[in-house]
Design a protein that fits this description.
Layout: E1 3-15, E2 18-29, E3 32-37, H1 44-51, E4 59-64, E5 67-68, H2 74-84, E6 85-88, H3 100-109, H4 118-131, H5 147-159, E7 165-169, H6 177-192, E8 196-200, H7 204-208, E9 212-217, E10 220-223
The structure holds adenosine-5'-diphosphate (ADP) and magnesium ion (MG).
């Protein structure tokens, strides 16, 4: 199996001599589904942001899709984030002056033109939106959506560029049980296509739907199952 995320000796603190993450080794294989659990404040979001290259202040090594993040310039990092990583962040953020559809298509705007196949992108959008039952919301103003609907829109946006890695921070937090299960089922389909999924969750039932479960506690990540 090949690793699409490989973390070695990762440490991070926000204050001097106070580490949130302590010498962590961790990896994600292609075609795998992993849940990360842990109490609030243990550093789960911090860890996800580091892997997602949203935070470049750390010690140790983070390799994502073959790239050592510390050796990438900003342009390379933006490209990596946009094409290889799908983010579902804890707070679903949508741009207000754009329609739901325009929000979903935003990551495709920055694709190099040779990688852009409009027909394929639109068909992918509808397929994902239908799966999460938000197809009818595409023309809407994001302000008019419920929290759960926004979360599903963010999930479609995260997957629109067919990323290698999906990083999801409490993706089911604002969803009812049925929609939570649907999102995890969608992740499973994507996993079967060879992608790596990492879901942060405090929900034991959601975690149990992942093949690997890890816990972050006292700055260390340990396997639970
Ligand atoms: N930008 C920041 N500056 C200072 N402290 C932070 C910052 N971000 C997070 N922290 C602290 O790091 C710890 C871990 O936070 P976080 O990663 O959000 O935890 P979790 O997602 O597991 O709830 C918390 O104590 C939090 O207060
Ligand atoms: Mg968090």
């Amino acid at each position: 199996m090949s690793k699409v995320v490989n973390v070695k000796h990762l440490s991070k603190g926000f204050e001097k001599n106070k580490f949130i993450l302590k010498d962590i080794d961790f990896s994600l294989e292609k075609g795998s589904m992993t849940a990360l659990i842990g109490a609030s404040g243990e550093g789960k979001t911090t860890f996800l942001n580091l892997i997602g290259s949203l935070d470049n202040s750390y010690s140790g090594q983070i390799i994502v899709a073959g790239q050592d993040l510390s050796l990438c310039n900003d342009k390379k990092l933006s490209h990596l984030r946009n094409t290889k990583i799908g983010f579902v962040l804890q707070e679903p953020i949508l741009i207000q002056r754009l329609s739901v559809e325009q929000n979903i298509l935003l990551p495709t705007v920055y694709l190099p033109s040779k990688a852009k196949n409009k027909t394929k992108i639109i068909s992918r959008m509808h397929k994902l939106a239908q799966y999460l039952d938000i197809d009818s919301l595409l023309p809407r103003d994001p302000n008019t959506l419920s929290g759960g609907q926004k979360q599903r829109v963010v999930a479609v946006r995260a997957l629109i560029n067919d990323p290698e890695i999906v990083l999801a921070d409490e993706p089911t937090g604002s969803l009812d049980e049925k929609n939570a299960k649907t999102i995890i089922r969608l992740f499973k389909k994507i996993k079967d296509e060879g992608k790596a999924i990492l879901t942060v969750t405090h929900d034991k039932e959601v975690a149990a739907l992942h093949e690997n479960i890890f816990r972050l506690s006292n700055g260390k990540i340990t396997k639970v199952n």
